[in-house]
Write a structure and sequence with these properties.
By secondary structure, the protein is α/β, with parallel strands linked by helices. The protein has 12 helices and 15 strands. The protein has a 5-stranded mixed sheet, sandwiched between helices. The protein binds zinc ion.
C-alpha cells in the first residue's frame, strides 16, 4: 500500500515527464491525458511552478473564454551532464533540464585504472561546467557511461574487455565528482537516446562501433537479464569455429561486424575506407559486401528471436544509412517471415548517442526521485 506522500510523488513525476515529453501543454490537457481532476492539476502545477521545475510560457489559442497558459519545463535553472568514457576518449555533454543539449566536448583522454585518471575526470568536468558559466549548484547530476557489464545492485563494474579491467567499484569512477551520479553501460545508454519516450514499445538496439553491443527495451523498459548481460549481441556466435573474438571465443558477431573489420590497421580512419569504397576500390567493395552480409544475418536472427523493431546504432549505423539498398536487399533475402524490412531503422544520434542517452537517463533518474 502506497502512502499519501508516495502517491503525490508519483503524480508529480507523471506530470513532469508528460510536460517534458510534450514540451508545451495546458493544465486542461494534463488533466484529460493523465486522468486528474482540474483542482488536482492546479495544485500540483502550482507546486512545480514554485519549485522552478515548470514555467508558464505563452498562451494557447482561445476557443472562447480565457486563453489557456502554456506550461513547459524550466530551462536555465537545472542542468545534467552526460559523461561517456571510452578507451581513448572522453565525451561530455551539458544538457538543459528539458532535454536539450547545451554544449559538448570530445577529447583524447586515455583510460587507465589509476587515481590520476579518476581525479582527471573530476577536473575536466568542473572545467567544462565553469567554461559554460553554469553555477555548480545548478547541476543536479552527472550520468556516467562505461563500456562494460555493470551490476547496479552491488555498484560494481563486473568486466570491461574494452577498458581491460574487472571488479571495480563504480564509486572509483565518481570519487572526484561532487554531484549525484547515475551509471549505465554504453549500449544501454545509446539505446535510451534512440527509443521513443512517449509510447511503450519493444526495441532491439544493435550498437555498431569499434565493438558490437546492444540493448533490449521491452515495453520501453530496459531488460538486463539475470546477470546484466542481456543484449550482449556482439558475442552471439555467427560462424562456429570462425574468426577469433577479443572475448576468447571464435566466430562472434563482434569479429564480423565491428567497424574495425573494415580497416587494415586499428588507427586507419573509417572516412578513408568509405572514400575508397566510393571510388570503386575492389578490396573495399568486397569487404563491405561481406560486412553487410554478416550484419543482415545477425539482424534477421534478432528479428526472429524478439519479433520487434531493430535499430542499428553506433557510428556504423550512420554509414549503413548512406548505403541502404545493398543492406536491405540482403536482410530481405535472409528473412522469409516479414514482407519487408520496415522493422529496421537507423539510429539518429550517431557518435553522440551514448552521451545523449546517459544524460537523459540521469535526467530521468532525477525526475523519478523528485520531491518538492
Ligand atoms: Zn566474443
Amino acid at each position: 500500500m502506497k502512502t499519501d506522500n508516495e502517491i503525490k510523488m508519483q503524480n508529480r513525476v507523471r506530470i513532469i515527464k508528460y510536460v517534458l515529453d510534450q514540451r508545451h501543454v495546458s493544465r486542461q490537457e494534463i488533466a484529460s491525458r493523465l486522468g486528474f481532476s482540474m483542482p488536482t492539476v492546479f495544485s500540483y502545477v502550482t507546486e512545480l511552478l514554485d519549485a522552478n521545475i515548470l514555467c508558464e510560457k505563452g498562451e494557447f489559442g482561445s476557443t472562447g473564454g480565457r486563453k489557456a497558459k502554456a506550461l513547459s519545463i524550466c530551462t536555465g535553472q537545472r542542468y545534467v551532464v552526460g559523461m561517456d568514457i571510452t578507451k581513448r576518449h572522453l565525451r561530455l555533454m551539458l544538457m538543459h533540464f528539458n532535454g536539450e543539449p547545451v554544449a559538448e566536448l570530445y577529447f583524447k583522454y586515455r583510460y587507465e585504472n589509476t587515481d590520476r585518471y579518476y581525479n582527471g575526470l573530476g577536473v575536466h568536468l568542473e572545467t567544462f561546467i565553469q567554461n559554460h558559466d553554469i553555477a555548480p549548484e545548478s547541476v543536479v547530476g552527472v550520468g556516467i557511461s562505461i563500456p562494460g557489464i555493470i551490476d547496479p545492485k552491488t555498484n560494481v563494474l563486473q568486466r570491461s574487455h574494452i577498458l581491460e579491467v574487472s571488479n571495480i567499484s563504480l564509486l572509483t569512477f565518481s570519487k572526484y565528482i561532487p554531484y549525484p551520479v547515475y551509471f549505465e553501460n554504453d549500449a544501454n545508454s545509446a539505446a535510451y537516446a534512440e527509443i521513443p519516450k512517449n509510447e511503450k514499445t519493444n526495441i532491439i538496439y544493435l550498437s555498431l562501433s569499434n565493438t558490437v553491443g546492444g540493448a533490449i527495451y521491452l515495453g520501453s523498459s530496459l531488460y538486463t537479464g539475470d546477470n546484466y548481460r542481456g543484449g550482449e549481441f556482439g558475442h552471439i556466435i555467427l560462424h562456429p569455429g570462425g574468426k577469433f573474438c577479443y572475448c576468447g571465443k571464435q566466430g562472434c558477431l563482434d569479429a564480423y561486424c565491428s567497424a574495425m573489420v573494415l580497416l587494415d590497421h586499428s588507427d586507419d580512419r573509417l572516412e578513408d575506407f568509405f572514400s575508397r569504397l566510393d571510388s570503386g576500390d575492389e578490396t573495399c567493395i568486397k569487404r563491405w559486401e561481406t560486412y553487410l552480409d554478416n550484419l543482415a544475418m545477425a539482424v534477421t536472427n534478432l528479428r526472429m528471436a524478439y519479433d520487434c523493431n531493430v535499430i542499428l546504432g553506433g557510428y556504423m549505423g550512420g554509414y549503413i544509412a548512406q548505403y541502404p539498398g545493398c543492406f536491405f536487399e540482403k536482410a530481405e533475402t535472409y528473412n522469409k517471415f516479414d514482407q519487408d524490412t520496415s522493422y529496421i531503422s537507423m539510429g539518429k544520434h550517431k557518435r553522440q548517442s551514448t552521451v545523449i542517452g546517459i544524460a537523459q537517463l540521469m535526467l530521468n533518474h532525477y525526475i523519478s526521485h523528485f520531491a518538492v
